[in-house]
Specification:
Helix content is 48%, strand content 23%. With 380 residues, it is an alpha+beta fold. Strands 2-1-5-4-3 form a five-stranded antiparallel sheet. A five-stranded mixed sheet has the order 7-9-10-12-11. Strands 6-8-13 form a three-stranded antiparallel sheet. A hairpin with a 3-residue loop joins strand 11 (346-352) and strand 12 (356-364). The relative contact order is 0.08.
Length: 380
């Protein structure tokens, strides 16, 4: 909360006729109820604050609490206070200075923890002002950032360490032409993997920042699919994978074409890499009312049920050994999830081990591609 808001709240407590008597109530007044201790104008000011605001009494109850304070669980409508808030108020009176701390508040029948930052300022010997703000999302974001940094460090160590060992081997066997050629190829492979990892880390950081979709355009999805299939054709031929295009509609969506291509290519790349040789990967496009549905279907290994809930997490791999062989970074599906979310769409997984997987993206249709125009473009 800004200093100006703090000053406004504190001044409001000192304004109004008879405020001196209200701030030093007689015992009989304190017993008459919360409303008699706090002037009406002060309650109006505290009620409109976005932060939780509580006037704490010396008997560890509240003289007034706004709606936000009730929602956060630091105070109840009957005047009861969360114990940790009352303890902070006691410390503030004892120190005769503001005291602040983070309070864990368990809510609901499942006891879900929320983390609330509370600052208590003594107003006089009998009353104190507690201001509370929910820190739960901030804590979760900080934990995510720490986890991301740890994961990035771990992932970068593998290719960097491999490159170092390969370089040392070449240095020690510089006269062995066959060995140098063999390990030079491995260095190229690790370098490509490192380059891909760094690029995807940059992309996921941009996507999470919410700044990557800057200029929306009307994007024909059949064109996106054609570009993706063309870009993976060589990789598919190398694994003898048949690519099947099933397009029954020509919907267009508002979005960033490059991001949509990147997301769908990640899905098709995965389908190719996790399919057995001589298998088939199908990419379909259809319109369901005002929703476009893109599905990437493979006949590969499938994903176990216990892995399906985590498959879109960053750096999560169902088969780390296979990911190393294929050059996977564990970021591809996380990128897909963020791209789709930025386009206000959904991505859904169906999978069964030894049968295959289907990733389905649904996006709102904003228009239709002119078939005649599309035909002209293909001829040109």
């Amino acid at each position: 909360m800004s200093p100006e808001t703090w000053l406004l709240a504190l001044l409001a407590l000192l304004v109004g006729a008879g405020v001196g008597a209200l701030l030093r109530p007689r015992p009989s007044e304190a017993a008459t109820g919360a409303g008699t201790l706090v002037p009406h104008r002060t309650r109006e000011v505290l009620s409109v604050l976005q932060s939780g605001a509580v006037i704490v009494r010396r008997d560890r109850r509240s003289a007034f609490a706004n709606t936000t304070a009730h929602a956060l669980g630091v105070a109840r409508a009957d005047g009861a206070l969360h114990g940790s808030v009352a303890d902070l108020a006691e410390k503030a009176w004892k120190a005769d200075a503001p005291v602040e701390d983070e309070v864990e508040i368990k809510r609901g029948v499942l006891g879900t923890s929320n983390y609330v930052h509370v600052r208590v300022t003594p107003l006089n010997d009998e009353l104190a002002l507690a201001v509370a703000n929910d820190n739960t999302e901030q804590r979760a974001a900080e934990a995510t950032r720490r986890e991301f940094a740890v994961n990035v460090s771990h992932e970068l160590k593998t290719p960097v360490g491999a490159l170092s060992l390969l370089a040392e081997t070449i240095e020690d066997n510089a006269q062995d032409t066959a060995m140098v050629e063999k390990f030079a190829g491995k260095i190229r492979k690790e370098t490509r993997r490192l380059s891909k990892l760094i690029q995807e880390i940059i992309e996921i950081s941009r996507l999470q920042g919410g700044e990557s979709v800057m200029d929306y355009d009307l994007v024909p999805l059949d064109g996106v699919i054609d570009e993706v299939l063309e870009s993976v054709r060589i990789a598919a031929e190398g694994r003898r994978i048949t690519l099947v295009r099933e397009v029954t509609a020509s919907p267009a969506v508002m979005g960033d074409r490059d991001l949509l291509v990147m997301a769908m290519r990640n899905l098709v790349d995965n389908a190719i890499n996790y399919s057995e040789p001589a298998g088939r990967v199908t990419v379909s496009l259809a319109a369901e009312g005002d929703v476009a549905r893109v599905a990437v279907i493979d006949q590969g290994l499938g994903i176990a049920e216990e892995d399906q809930e985590r498959i879109f997490e960053r750096f999560y791999r169902t088969d780390p050994a296979r990911s190393r062989d294929t050059g996977g970074t564990g970021l591809g599906l996380s990128i897909v999830k963020h791209v789709v979310a930025q386009h206000s769409g959904t991505v859904h997984l169906w999978s069964q081990p030894s049968v295959g997987s289907t990733f389905t993206i649904r996006l709102a249709i904003e228009g239709q591609v002119d078939d005649a125009a599309s035909a002209d473009e293909e001829e040109s």
